[in-house]
Specification:
Elements: H1 8-22, E1 27-31, E2 34-38, E3 46-50, E4 65-68, E5 83-86, E6 96-99, E7 102-105, H2 109-117, H3 140-143, H4 151-166, E8 178-185, H5 196-208, H6 213-224, H7 239-248, E9 253-257, H8 275-286, E10 290-293, H9 303-319, E11 328-329, H10 340-347, E12 352-353, E13 372-376, E14 381-387, E15 392-393, H11 394-398, H12 409-424, E16 428-432, H13 441-452
Parallel strand pairs: 3-7, 8-9, 8-16, 9-10, 11-12, 12-14, 15-16
Antiparallel strand pairs: 1-2, 2-3, 4-5, 6-7, 13-14
Helix pairs in contact: 2-4, 5-6, 9-10
Length: about 450
């Protein structure tokens, strides 16, 4: 079932989005063919926003993706470029008209915000990749060239300018650009939790594939001395280095731990109760960084499994005296079924999820780099869970199986471009970097550049 765009739950949710963005209690009133925005006093002036029923209530958009140049009408583009207008079948001139009692915007900004933020596009999709993920290449944003732009934020930036012109006495909320960095702990140790056969395979891989003879020789020693804490010589044990870098930049790193095993091959080889993992969690917490959940491979369609793994993480944390104001995390392999996975996080009592980026391309899957309350477009209800969009994962940019940009200047430029787009709208650049992708000098240099840029 699709939620009608002009339904009361949708407009109330969009009012909350507007309050978080502008700091104003705006009233949204659906009318025939438009939505009225006013200050809730039932009188002029007001902003009328074109509403196209059903255009943004399904997987596909009827229109293509035209563009609009705000400069031509005296407005400022956050990215200093014409703005994509997904779903538009035409761009009226002028797009923003002044009336005696307000302004009219001839583009359905609110419909676009609903469609992008609710991820309505992803409901019931069958064009999935080998991991059951909706790929970037199937998205309207990728097909029409706006995936690497925070298109919802760009249009809300325009709406903010219209609000200021109409109500110059009001002060809009000012947002400061920020960076959040997180780390999925898929493999906290290269050798520490392996079986004898696993160690032999890892050693062979080090010699044949990576030409890492020193690592192979150290493997048995590292394994034997990882019973109570991760060994300093373990190549996957980059946690202190990560925290050192974050602290130099005034950042808090979030480390997301796997607490279940629903796939024998793709899930982790450690248990959260292991003494070495407990010691790692204590160390992270002691230094003021965050611990979170990384649900195992097959949980994206099983809310009860997410609940169980969240409870397991909290139990281990409580036993170690670890208490946090909020708990969040990210799905393993970025696996996501919408809205099923949302409800797993909601039922687990988690505060936020930071899964929503594509594995095959970086960018703005939700059209925004701002955190926002989740909405279930099937049930038509807002959730307590908050969505923290992920903008980039390191292997998406670096790995040959995805963009294949490596670790040099081209990759650095891509991270910088995405970060600059977040900065332009005053949003948050969220970066995922695995602890196992920091062994080479080039990887460390790229990571530090991505944080410092």
């Amino acid at each position: 079932m699709n939620t009608p765009l002009l339904s009361t739950p949708v407009t109330r949710w969009l009012e909350i989005i507007c309050f978080e963005r502008f700091g104003l209690h705006l009233k949204l009133t659906p009318e025939e063919g438009q939505t009225r925005i006013d200050l809730g006093q039932g009188a002029a002036p007001s902003i009328l926003v074109t509403a196209i029923p059903d255009m943004y209530c399904g997987q596909q958009l009827a229109g293509q993706c035209l563009t609009w140049d705000p400069v031509a009408e005296g407005y400022i583009s956050a990215l200093n470029r014409p703005i994509p207008a997904p779903g538009a079948v035409q761009v009226k001139t002028p797009l923003i008209e002044e009336r005696e009692d307000g302004h009219t915007i001839h583009y359905d900004i609110l419909g676009l915000a609903y469609w992008m933020l609710s991820r309505h596009e992803e409901v019931g999709r069958i064009d999935l990749d080998e991991h059951g993920r909706f790929p970037a290449t199937s998205s309207h944003a990728f097909k029409h060239g706006y995936l690497e732009r925070p298109v919802v934020d760009e249009w809300l930036y325009i709406l903010g300018q219209v609000i200021q012109r109409l109500w110059p006495q009001l002060r809009l909320k000012q947002h400061q650009f920020s960076t959040k960095v997180s780390h999925d702990v898929d493999s906290p140790s290269r050798y520490g939790f392996c079986s004898i056969v696993g160690i032999a395979r890892a050693m062979a891989g080090d010699v044949v594939k990576r030409r890492n003879f020193k690592g192979a020789l150290l493997a048995p020693w590292v394994h034997l001395h990882s019973k109570k804490a991760l060994h300093p010589a373990d190549s996957a044990n980059t946690f202190d280095w990560i925290m050192d870098v974050s602290e130099r930049h005034g950042l808090t790193s979030a480390f997301y731990f796997i607490c279940g095993r629903t796939d024998a091959i793709k899930d982790a080889d450690y248990e959260p109760e292991h003494p070495a993992i407990r010691e790692l969690m204590r160390r992270i917490h002691r230094r003021g960084h965050e611990i979170g959940l990384h649900p195992s491979y097959a949980t994206h369609q099983r809310p009860s499994a997410i609940v169980a793994e969240a409870q397991r993480l909290r139990a281990v944390a409580a036993a170690e005296g670890i208490h946090q104001d909020q708990w969040g995390g990210r799905m393993h392999y970025l696996r996501w079924e919408h809205p099923t996975t949302l409800h797993g996080w909601e039922q687990a009592g988690m505060h936020y999820d930071s899964t929503l980026s594509y594995a095959d391309r970086p960018g703005f899957r939700c059209g925004t780099c701002f955190e926002y309350p989740a909405f279930d477009p099937v049930a038509g209800t807002m959730l307590k869970l908050r969505i923290r969009p992920l903008i980039a994962m390191e292997c998406t940019v670096m790995a040959p199986r995805y963009m294949g940009l490596g670790t040099g200047e081209v990759a650095a430029a891509k991270f910088g471009q995405l970060k600059d787009a977040c900065r332009a709208v005053g949003g948050c650049f969220t970066l995922l970097w695995h602890n196992t992708q920091l062994n080479l000098d080039a990887e460390q240099a790229l990571y530090q550049h991505a944080l410092a840029h």
